[in-house]
Write a sequence for this structure.
């Protein structure tokens, strides 16, 4: 559906701000694609046209870029999009079972390749496989709209899906107390914060195991040798 | 004697507000910047050179030397690009660092830009970690407000802008030239080198690309001195680093130690392999570094020793697998990853990864043939060195390691007509069943 005049005015102002961050305008293409995804939940043909016009590119040039990156969707996904890590470490720690459990729970093929999205009929929840999301010490990891849900099990992941479908509050393990929607997440990625940066922990438990052990044993980095160090 | 663990980068992660500017300043934050700004830029480069800080993104190239390659007085704009695209399977150190103490990275980036005389820095962060993106955005905004970034920083006359740039899901963009191409608004395809980014990088201008942990190590080198840093670690691998343990260990997590610590020592700290099991194989630094076994428990985890053991230190991403894990399953999944992430530019990588997945799949299903192992090794040999970037070189790494250490296990799949392992035995909850 073409963007309304209201949406276009707003998006053009945002686009101008994004383009202004870069010495060369084309660098704004990735954030602009995040921006159009934040309007519609995916990069539609209209989104492609918008980016092309904003940067003076052809639609083909924009489409070529959008299709390269897995975070840009060319079709609607869940308002809450789950990414189950099934790269080797998470898979072995249980990610394969979690993906299969969620697929089955939502009536999809548990052995599917995960690159063909599962989305509930109400559009509330989507599930896909993702590659390593840099949370290996919390394996198995499930992402929801790119927030961490650490140390998941098939049971906890099924409950997560049910809670999201029912509109119950769910809280990321390492993230703000309020989970934002897929569209809102895309807007943050375009560079427009939602004021939730200070919410949630500094670090999760696994991030702190070494530090806690060091404190327990009184281990520290050596003192600097008297040149005005600050340690 | 140096302590077993030496928290520097991780030292304040347990402060519930460690990501806030005020908390960072309270523990000495931005003192390194003040010190740097009082020095000529070349002296800052010399200090980092003297510290022998080597790139923490995997390759281990000396950071100060990289900075010194930037031609000065060339009349071109210079750029810093921080590689915060942490995506190498197993690697999980930069994400917690940026979540807990983003200002360490911002301060390091400002010092780096001052040293290389760059007026623009980009933090290319992978998009799939929303709270990290938020924390970086907050930190940059706070740094602008405090006068650490922007015009005439702390009255020095030095101007700098920092942009947080969220990627969009492509492992290849962690490769430095692909990252630049992506940052310019294109598909993330790697470029041939030379010219190197130091000469023709972003917008064909001199550009430094450094990993998050490398840049975040710079403030401590400025405050505590190059010698302090160089006194830690081993002869050729100086300093400290974050070691990330994951998988079948009792306490997975982040352990910051001098380079040269061994897996045996780290496992002791982490409570050992999970109860009732034993180590089978592990990666020293992500899936692109060849696997090692329990024969390598005492290899010092520094660049030279791990290389001598036939692998690479990489990103110190120690993925630990016990004896319940099928090496074919692991190798297949990693190879599938490379197939998925190959950008498609170079034929050997694009086609080779596709065919290798087909062959390993066949082996895993017990339908392998007598020729499969040799075919896989042959295909692998024809990818290595024949692609523009290191992704191609990494494609054969998992299966090569599996063949090297567990050839019999691969053949067993064929003999038994299927995988002899129970995949359910590997999970986090298997013990409780």
């Amino acid at each position: 559906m073409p963007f309304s005049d209201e949406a276009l005015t707003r998006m053009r102002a945002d686009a101008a701000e994004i383009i202004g961050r870069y010495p060369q305008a084309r660098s704004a293409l990735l954030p602009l694609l995040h921006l159009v995804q934040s309007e519609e939940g995916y990069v539609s043909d209209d989104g492609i046209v918008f980016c092309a016009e904003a940067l003076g590119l052809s639609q083909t040039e924009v489409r070529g870029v959008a299709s390269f990156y897995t975070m840009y969707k060319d079709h609607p996904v869940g308002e809450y999009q789950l990414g189950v890590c099934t790269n080797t470490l998470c898979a072995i720690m249980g990610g394969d079972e979690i993906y299969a459990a969620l697929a089955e729970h939502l009536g999809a093929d548990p052995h599917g390749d995960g690159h063909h999205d599962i989305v509930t009929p109400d559009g509330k929840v989507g599930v896909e496989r993702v590659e390593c999301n840099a949370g290996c010490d919390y394996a198995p990891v499930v992402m929801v709209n790119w927030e961490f849900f650490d140390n998941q099990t098939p049971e906890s992941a099924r409950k997560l899906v049910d809670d999201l479908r029912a509109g119950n509050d769910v809280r990321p393990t390492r993230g703000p107390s309020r989970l934002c929607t897929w569209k809102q997440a895309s807007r943050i990625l375009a560079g427009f914060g939602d004021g939730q940066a200070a919410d949630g922990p500094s670090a999760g438990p696994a991030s702190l195991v070494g530090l806690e052990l060091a404190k327990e044993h009184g281990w520290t980095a050596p003192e600097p040798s008297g040149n005005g160090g600050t340690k | 004697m140096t302590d077993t663990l030496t928290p520097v980068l991780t030292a304040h992660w347990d402060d519930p507000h460690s990501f806030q500017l005020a908390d960072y300043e309270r523990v000495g934050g931005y003192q390194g910047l003040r010190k740097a700004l009082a020095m000529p830029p070349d002296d800052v480069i010399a200090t980092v050179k003297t510290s022998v800080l080597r790139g923490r993104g995997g390759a281990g190239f000396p950071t100060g030397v990289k900075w010194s390659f930037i031609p000065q007085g060339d009349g071109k704009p210079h750029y810093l690009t921080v590689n915060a695209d942490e995506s190498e399977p197993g690697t999980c150190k930069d994400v917690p660092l940026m979540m807990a103490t983003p200002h360490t990275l911002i301060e390091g980036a400002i010092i780096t830009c001052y040293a290389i005389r760059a007026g623009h820095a980009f933090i290319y962060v992978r998009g799939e970690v929303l709270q990290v993106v938020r924390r970086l955005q907050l930190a940059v905004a706070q740094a602008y407000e405090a006068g650490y970034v922007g015009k005439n920083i702390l009255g020095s006359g030095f101007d700098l802008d920092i942009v947080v740039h969220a990627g969009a899901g492509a492992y290849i963009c962690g490769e430095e030239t692909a990252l630049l191409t992506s940052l310019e608004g294109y598909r993330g395809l790697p470029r041939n080198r030379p010219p190197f980014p130091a000469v023709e990088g972003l917008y064909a201008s001199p550009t430094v690309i450094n990993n998050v942990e490398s840049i975040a190590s710079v403030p401590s080198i400025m405050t505590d001195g190059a010698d302090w840093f160089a006194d830690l670690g081993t002869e050729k691998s100086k300093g400290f680093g974050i070691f990330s343990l994951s998988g079948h260990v009792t306490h997975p997590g982040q352990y910051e130690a001098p380079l040269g610590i061994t897996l045996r020592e780290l496992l002791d700290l982490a409570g050992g392999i999970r109860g009732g099991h034993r180590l089978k194989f592990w990666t020293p630094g992500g899936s692109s570094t060849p696997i090692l076994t329990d024969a390598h428990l005492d290899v010092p985890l520094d660049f030279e020793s791990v290389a001598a053991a036939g692998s690479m230190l990489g990103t110190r991403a120690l993925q630990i697998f016990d004896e319940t894990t099928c090496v074919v399953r692991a190798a297949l999944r990693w190879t599938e990853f490379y197939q998925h992430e190959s950008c498609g530019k170079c034929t050997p990588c694009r086609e080779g990864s596709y065919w290798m997945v087909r062959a390993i799949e066949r082996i895993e299903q017990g339908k392998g043939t007598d020729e499969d192992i040799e075919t896989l090794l042959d295909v692998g040999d024809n990818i290595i060195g024949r692609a523009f970037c290191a992704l191609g070189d990494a494609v054969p790494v998992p299966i090569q390691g599996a063949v090297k250490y567990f050839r019999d296990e691969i053949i067993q799949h064929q003999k038994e007509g299927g995988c002899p392992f129970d995949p359910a035995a590997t999970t986090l909850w298997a013990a409780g069943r």
